[in-house]
Design a protein that fits this description.
It is built from ten helices and 13 strands. It has 431 residues and is α+β, with helices and mostly antiparallel strands. The strands form two sheets. Strands 1, 3, 4, 7, 10, 11, 12 and 13 form an eight-stranded mixed beta sheet that branches. A five-stranded antiparallel beta sheet has the order 5-6-2-8-9. Helix 5 packs across helix 8. The longest helix has 42 residues. About 1% of the residues have low confidence.
Length: 431
C-alpha cells in the first residue's frame, strides 16, 4: 500500500530544535529533583521515625490495668496492722514544755531538750511517759460475722510497742499473729461483716489518738500514706467509732527514668538509722525500736508477680541484745544525730515502691450498748480490693515492629526485600 505524502509527513519524526531540547532537558532535571527531594524526605521520615521509636523504647512507657478482686487471689482477706499513737502526749509533760521551744515532732522535741537536760533523765522519761496498752485499750474482740472471738488471752502477742519519730512510743495491733485469723472470708453483708472491735478503758489516760492503717513494712510512712484517722474519746463516751476501710494494691515495674524501690522513704531511713546503731554499739534499746519492718519477711505474702519487683529481705539481725543502762544515753544521742543527718543526706530516694498496699478510710459515730466506754470498730467497707498493675508496654518486639512499619511506609521495603539487598551487596564490600 502506498501512503499519501501527507501521511508520510505525519509518520516521519519531526526535527527537534535546540530550544525544544533544552526545555526537555530542564523538565527531566526538574522531575529528577522532585524525585530526589521525595526520596530525601522519605529517608528523613524513616530516620526520624526510627529515632522516635528508639526513644519510646528507651523511656519504657507504662500501661496500667485496674482489676477488682476478692481479697488475696488465693488466701482471702487480711486486715491491716493498726497502730494507735497519742498525737502530743510528750508535749503535756512539764519537763518538755520548758525546753521544747517551737518543736512539735517527737524527735525534734527530744533534740531540743537534750541541749539543756541530762540525757539519762530523758531516756528514763521517754520509757516511763507512756502507759501500758492495757490502760488504753481494755478489750479487743474479732467479729467473725456470726460470733465474737476474744483476743484477751493473746493480748501481748497481738500488741507491739513501736517507736516513731513523729509520735514517740505507739502500739501496733497485728491480727495476723493469730494463725486462725490471719486470713478470713468477707462473704457477709451489712453489720455482719467481719471486723475488729477495740473497747477503750473507762479512765483512759489518752483523750485522743491517731489511728494508722498500714502493712508491716511501711509503719514509719503510715501517716503520709493516707491510712490515718484522728479519734477523740472524751467526746464520744457511749459511742462507737466505726472506721470503714478500703484496700488498694499497686504493683509497678521499675523503669530507667523512674526506678522503683523496696521501701518507702521514712521506712528506708529508719532501717539506715538502726543499722548504724547496730554497727556502732552492737545492741538496741526498746524505746527506739521501730517495729516489724526491721524483721525477717519469711511469713510475708507478696501480691506482685513480677521479676523486676525487689522483695524485702532481712535487714536487722534478730538476736541483738538490749543495750545496757549505762550506754543507753549515748545510743539515744547517736540516734537523734542520725535522724537529723539523714534529713541532709540519705541513700533513700523519694520515689515509688515496686509494691505497695494503701488503705483509705472514713469513720462515723454510732450508738453502742457498752456503757461509759468508747468503742472503735474497724471493718472493710467493700470486699473488693483494687489492683493496679503497671507494666512496660513497649518492649523490643514493639520496637522491631515499629521500625518495620516505618520502613515499609517510607521506603516501601520489607524484611524480605531488605535481606535480598543485603545478600546482594554486602559480599561486594568484603571483596
Amino acid at each position: 500500500m502506498v501512503l499519501p505524502e501527507s501521511a508520510k509527513e505525519r509518520l516521519l519524526p519531526k526535527k527537534i530544535t535546540s530550544r525544544q531540547a533544552i526545555e526537555f532537558k530542564e523538565r527531566i532535571k526538574k522531575v529528577i529533583q522532585v524525585r530526589n527531594g521525595i526520596i530525601f524526605c522519605l529517608i528523613l521520615l524513616f530516620f526520624l521515625g526510627v529515632i522516635r521509636a528508639v526513644m519510646t523504647y528507651w523511656s519504657q512507657p507504662l500501661s496500667t490495668d485496674i482489676t477488682y478482686k476478692y481479697g488475696h487471689p488465693y488466701l482471702g482477706f487480711q486486715y491491716p496492722q493498726i497502730t494507735l499513737c497519742h498525737p502530743n502526749i510528750y508535749l503535756e509533760h512539764p519537763m518538755f514544755k520548758e525546753c521544747r521551744g517551737d518543736a512539735l515532732e517527737f524527735i525534734s522535741v527530744i533534740k531540743s531538750c537534750m541541749k539543756s537536760n541530762n540525757t539519762s533523765e530523758i531516756a528514763d522519761l521517754i520509757q516511763n511517759l507512756h502507759p501500758e496498752i492495757g490502760n488504753i485499750v481494755k478489750m479487743v474482740r474479732f467479729w467473725t460475722g456470726s460470733k465474737y472471738v476474744s483476743l484477751w488471752p493473746l493480748y501481748k502477742k497481738v500488741w507491739t510497742p513501736v517507736f516513731l519519730d513523729d509520735f514517740g512510743l505507739c502500739y501496733t495491733f497485728d491480727l495476723s499473729k493469730v494463725e486462725k485469723l490471719k486470713y478470713f472470708s468477707l462473704d457477709t453483708d451489712g453489720f455482719g461483716r467481719p471486723g475488729i472491735e477495740f473497747v477503750m478503758a473507762e479512765k483512759n489516760v489518752w483523750q485522743t489518738a491517731d489511728l494508722l492503717l498500714h502493712t508491716r513494712f511501711d509503719l514509719p510512712d503510715a501517716y503520709q500514706l493516707a491510712g490515718y484517722v484522728p479519734l477523740s474519746f472524751s467526746d464520744n463516751i457511749n459511742k462507737a467509732l466505726k472506721v470503714e476501710i478500703k484496700k488498694k494494691i499497686n504493683c509497678r515495674e521499675s523503669t530507667r527514668a523512674v526506678p522503683c524501690v523496696k521501701y518507702e522513704q521514712k521506712t528506708c531511713q529508719s532501717i539506715e538509722k538502726h543499722q548504724a546503731i547496730f554497727e556502732k554499739f552492737g545492741c538496741s534499746i526498746p524505746i527506739l525500736y521501730s517495729g516489724q519492718h526491721l524483721d525477717s519477711n519469711k511469713d510475708n505474702t507478696y501480691y506482685c508477680n513480677s521479676s523486676s519487683v525487689q522483695h524485702l529481705d532481712n535487714v536487722i539481725p534478730k538476736d541483738v541484745s538490749n543495750c545496757s543502762y549505762d550506754v543507753t544515753p549515748e545510743v539515744l544521742q547517736f540516734y537523734v544525730k542520725q535522724s537529723f543527718d539523714l534529713n541532709k543526706g540519705s541513700n533513700c530516694p523519694m520515689t515509688q515502691t515496686c509494691e505497695n498496699v494503701r488503705f483509705t478510710s472514713s469513720y462515723k459515730v454510732e450508738e453502742t450498748w457498752i456503757e461509759n466506754k468508747t468503742l472503735i470498730y474497724v471493718v472493710f467497707e467493700n470486699p473488693e480490693v483494687e489492683y493496679r498493675i503497671s507494666y512496660i508496654n513497649y518492649g523490643w518486639i514493639s520496637l522491631v515492629g515499629a521500625i518495620g512499619g516505618i520502613l515499609g511506609l517510607t521506603l516501601g521495603a520489607s524484611a524480605f526485600t531488605l535481606s535480598e539487598f543485603l545478600l546482594k551487596h554486602v559480599p561486594y564490600f568484603f571483596k
